[in-house]
Specification:
By secondary structure, the protein is mostly helical. It has one domain. Helix content is 87%, strand content 0%. The longest helix is centred in the N-terminal third of the chain and has 40 residues. This is Flagellar biosynthetic protein FliQ. It holds the Pfam family Bac_export_3. It is a multi-pass membrane protein. Its main location: membrane.
Length: 89
């Protein structure tokens, strides 16, 4: 197995990780930004005000995107299992 093919496998693994993490994190970041703008506009400096909306949006993102996230991880895992003979031999 050449080093270039291992780098391709590593690159694909990183792209799957970035895709899955961004699908979970980005909605919470957008809600956090909206709450921060609201807090700045109304001069409310409560730290716990932004926690609950971000938590709920993250949970909803996991709930609605969970099937797709698991399917993406399973596809990558099956692809890696199929590549085992090529990596070893």
């Amino acid at each position: 197995m050449s080093p270039e093919s291992l780098i391709d496998i590593f690159r694909e693994a990183l792209s799957v990780i970035v895709l899955i993490v961004s699908a979970i994190i980005l909605p919470g970041l957008f809600i956090g930004l909206i709450v921060a703008v609201f807090q700045a506009a109304t001069s409310i400096n409560e730290q716990t005000l932004s926690f609950l909306p971000r938590l709920l949006v993250t949970l909803f993102a996991l709930m609605f995107l969970g099937h797709w996230l698991v399917q993406t991880m399973m596809d990558f895992f099956f692809e890696m299992v199929n590549l085992i003979p090529q990596v070893i031999g």
